[in-house]
Amino acid sequence: MNTISDQGGAATEKNLEEGKYPDRAAIDRFWEQVDNAKMLLDYGIAGGRTKKIEDRIIENIERLVLADRRCFPEKTELFEFMKAYRDLGLLLSPVTATTLKMTSKHYGRKRWTSLWISKISDAVHWSRWLALLTMLFISLIVLHSWLLKEKVVCGYESISGLNALLDILAPFFYGGLGACAYLLKSCHSYIRNRSFDVFRKPEYMNRIMLGLLAGGVIVLFVNQQLPSDGKGVSLSAAALGFIAGYSNDVLFQMIERITKTIFPKTEGEKNLHSSS
């Protein structure tokens, strides 16, 4: 191990300037990697994966965990550690040090979803936010059903305009509800498996928006009438919207197939696509 700290501070700074060691920011990031590797290793061992984790991986990580952090490892030690960390990451994938932190209360903080009373993890915060969004869609759907009932039973004309608007938006609401149901189910699995990745939140938000869109678009592609023989199942626009929102990937794949059938690519476009 090469000492890089205070013995002869001037000499240390000179070594850094001459490029004999990485800069201090890089050194700090390296020891943070060591801490992350230790966290991941502890999770793997606690999860009963000890027999699958090679002794080489454990030894190369623990050697640096116990090392003097005033020193920087030799190249051989550094490479052995990086290879051990890489192999450990492949072994425990999709769990990483980041996902462990995102699902740990220890690394959480007080948030509005916990009423600022106690610390919660990023994963729990996201799941509660998603649950509230789900309740919003449910409330809008209940409001639509209630207004429809009031119009039929009491004949209130004053609510006809609002009810007509909600009639148009209802499939979108059901699509959003379906997308939220899918994400809630997935989020529960991610939290249980310690694999929730906060950096995928934009992807999850996009899925909600695509669910809203799919719920409104699906009614344009599906004929809800029963076959002439009376057999089969007729699904309402609301049910179609929920299904489309829950599995919006399937809907957009269908749209792509229809697009390719109606507008097939020319030879020039195919060659351009293959060359790119």
Describe this structure in words.
The protein contains eleven helices and four strands. The protein has helices at residues 9-17, 24-46, 55-65, 75-92, 97-102, 122-154, 160-193, 201-217, 237-246, 248-262, 267-275, and strands at residues 2-3, 71-72, 109-110, 119-120. The strands form two sheets. Strands 1-2 form a two-stranded antiparallel sheet. Strands 3-4 form a two-stranded antiparallel ribbon. A hairpin with an 8-residue loop joins β3 (109-110) and β4 (119-120). The two termini are 48 Å apart.
What features would you highlight for this structure?
mainly alpha, 3% strand, elongated, 276 residues
What's the arrangement of secondary structure elements?
Blueprint: E1 2-3, H1 9-17, H2 24-46, H3 55-65, E2 71-72, H4 75-92, H5 97-102, E3 109-110, E4 119-120, H6 122-154, H7 160-193, H8 201-217, H9 237-246, H10 248-262, H11 267-275
Antiparallel strand pairs: 1-2, 3-4
Helix pairs in contact: 2-3, 2-4, 3-4, 6-7, 7-8, 7-9, 8-9, 9-10
